[in-house]
Amino acid sequence: MNIKKNLLIRTQFINQFKKDNQALFVVLIFLSILISVVELTISIIVQQIIDIATSGVLDDLLYIIMITGAFIVFFVLVFFINNILFPKYIYKCTRQYKVYSFNKIIENDIVSFRKKGSSEFISALTNDMNTIEENYISSIFDMITSTVTFVGAFIIMLIYNIPLTIVAVCFSFVPVISILMVRKKAEAREIKVSTENASFLHFTEDTLEGFSVIKSFRAEDTIKRMFKENNDKIEDAKRAKKRTTLNIGLIGTTSGIIAQMGVFIFGAYLSVSGEAITAGTIMLFVQLMNYVIHPIQQIPRLLVYRKAAIPLIDKMAKLAEVNRDTNIGHIATFNRGITIQNLNFSYDEKIIIDDLSFKFDKNKSYALVGASGSGKSTLLNMIIASNLNYEGDISYDEVSLKDMNASSIFEIVSLIEQNVFVFDSTIIDNITMFKAYPDEEIEHAILKSGLKQMIDEKGIDYLCGDGGSNLSGGEKQRISIARALLRKSKILLVDEATSALDNETSFNISNELLSLDHTTKIVVTHRLEDKILSQYDAILVLKDGKLFECGTYDELMNQKGLLESMIKITRD
Questions:
Q1: What residues contact 60, with CB distance under 8 A and at least 6 apart?
Q2: Which of 20, 191, 469, 523 has the highest count of CB atoms within 10 angstroms of its CB?
Q3: Residues 388/402, Cβ–Cβ less than 8 Å
Q4: Is position 329 within any domain?
Q5: Around Cβ 330, how many Cβ atoms within 10 Å?
Q6: What does pLDDT average to in each consecutive run of 10 residues of the chain (572 residues)?
Q7: Spatial CA neighbour of 370 closest among 120, 160, 550, 147
Q8: How far, in Å, CA of 539 to CA of 365, rounded?
Q9: Same-domain check for residues 294 and 351
Q10: Helix axes 473-487, 503-514, angle to 10 degrees
């Protein structure tokens, strides 16, 4: 059943090459056949010219010159049309395949996406795509051209001289056998390069994202060593692939020379033995042997690399496959609250959340405080089903998160994170996320998020740059806050959203968020101002993944527990 399912999924991806492209494909096949006929005809014209030259008949020479002129015009026309249509076909194939693949990737839920890793997707859409384009899409026309010239060359040979053709057939098996011997190694090399490239991209992406951490902990030497090791792996795999490719070429070329010389020598033997074979015919056979040997060299190689490209298509299909388990089940609702019961979560055998139980009631505000590594951000991510590998239960309106359609959670939840992603587009596009909202709602979100001054200075259509490179960290965080305000979600999760802002701006924005009506706010914060903390309905103090203490600001301060100690430290 899995084999049938995998074949079906693979077919869906391969069909993207054919979608609205069949007519162009047929025309290109016809042109490939014409190109083959053109190449074979050139050989016959050369044979006629040589034989006419030896016969010395001037009228025949003039006739063949006129035919050659007309043929050259036809030759240029065929190749000109092919050079227009072939790039168009490749463009449509790759464009449709990549768009289809990307659309499937975007349909993944957060759990599935994080399990696979962005570097895998990047590798599949770039390096793998280049290999698929060259070895799978383009190769079909090369195989058609090679096959037609191969068959046509043999037919012409049989017409001119049967014994010499039989010898040519015998010698032709030499390249075929030699190349088939290295086929499996070529397939393995191709897959190895793809795997190592994905790993290299993943390491490089993580390293560059953590650049500031590397510098602050003086870990440059270690990272340099790790980069060298990862780079060596991918380059070793590429070197091995290149070596195999070159060896295939060497084996094919050597065996081709043997076959060609064998036919040439036998043709010379027939000529000196008194057989009725002209010099032009011998040259024709020598030329046609190129069209026999080249396909023998080319077709097995093309088949090898075409077959090796199929696992790359399967890889993309597997990566892009939507995890249906998290897209079925109950639609998330939020009429009462979020209940967490005996929640336990570990990562790499380290306990992150330890037997935590709590209920977040509708339309109330909650602060999550605690030292770094206490489990605050992890708890927020688990509430939005970023990881379902936990013990205990998380439920919305008494429906377990594991029984819900995970994607539907984002219909009622907005998340403001510390690390904000900004598209390389305008400020307004990044606020609205390319959706239409009433102008008054956009203006309200801009005002409440503290973006008005920046927009007054730079303009609403100011380009944010790649990854928000034209903005400061604070400006990006304000955009993230404006996004969430504009959505008017029932639940607002905030993870250190004002960390990059100055104290005054942070205070004002925190007040704005806490004043939102009909919204449940769960806020991770390191800012412990009493005027802000006193506005929360409850403060959850986490320590080593445990709910250490919980209550209102006044209750916890009267207890003189961990929260009071943390506040004293910040004030000192």
A1: 52
A2: 523
A3: yes
A4: no
A5: 14
A6: 71 85 93 91 85 74 84 90 93 90 78 68 84 89 90 88 80 66 72 81 72 63 84 89 81 74 77 74 78 75 82 84 62 90 89 93 93 89 86 92 83 82 86 87 88 90 85 84 86 81 79 84 88 92 93 92 86 64
A7: 550
A8: 9
A9: no
A10: 10
Yes or no: say if 308 and 191 are a contact pair by the CB < 8 Å rule: yes
CATH number, position 388: 3.40.50.300
Structure tokens at 521: 């706010």
Number of Cβ within 10 Å of residue 19's Cβ equals 12
3-state DSSP call for residue 459? coil
270 and 360 housed in the same domain = no
Whether the CB-CB separation of 195 and 318 falls below 8 Å is answered with no
- Using CB atoms within 10 Å of the CB of residue 545, give its burial: 0 to 12 exposed, 13 to 18 middle, 19+ buried: buried
Amino acid occupying residue 96: Q
Cβ contact 354:340 at 8 Å: no
| Pairwise CA distance, residues 315 & 45, whole Å | 48
Number of domain units in the chain: 2
- The SS3 assignment for 120 reads helix
Could you tell me which of 288, 282, 287, 304 has the C-alpha nearest to residue 176? 304
